[in-house]
Amino acid sequence: MTDLKLIALDTEDLEVVSAHAQDAVVRVADMGYARRDQRFALLMNRFAWESDTPRGKGTRKRAALDFRGVTHVAYAGFDPAAPEGVLNLLAIGFQLTDSPSGIVELRFAGGGTVRMTVEYLEARLTDLGAAWAASGKPAHALD
Fold first, then answer.
1. Are 134 and 47 in contact (CB under 8 A)?
2. How confident is the model at residue 129 (pLDDT cuts 50, 70, 90)?
3. Mean pLDDT score, 17-37
């Protein structure tokens, strides 16, 4: 299985990154904001949707996701100071405010969010090589 290396510079690109990061498991201790560098980064165990087979449980891969041009970060729905916390990433969205600036939002199961004010949209998703059999395939109830 080939490692992913994706970059998002517009909303269409970000939708692709979001689809590949959907259902990633993220430890709160593995995310952080480097104010001086204007970067927000996180490590995740992403479900490799691109390699999923109909009968199998799928594969998880260790991956890094980082955002550039970040000027402010706000957290809601979880305690960012609780390093033992574990979150399930559902989607990544972008709302343009004053082109090219905007708001990037990471939405997690249970209502948790990370909102980043960015000067421009630049996100990178990179697989780090480690892969293993998933314990189960993520599933969501459709309302």
1. yes
2. confident
3. 97
Contact 67, 118 (CB under 8 A): yes
Question: What length is written for the chain?
Answer: 143
Tell me, what's the pLDDT at 56?
Answer: 72
Contact (CB, 8 A) for 39 and 67: yes
pLDDT, residue 117, reads 98
Burial class (CB in 10 A: 0-12, 13-18, 19+), 6: middle
- pLDDT tens, position by position, 50-66: 876 666 788 999 999 99
- Separation of alpha carbons 93 and 134, rounded Å: 26
Q: What angle do CA 13, 19, 20 make, to 5 degrees?
A: 95
Alpha-carbon torsion 98, 100, 101, 103, what sign? positive
Tokens of 118: 């960015």
Per domain, the residue ranges of the chain are 5-133
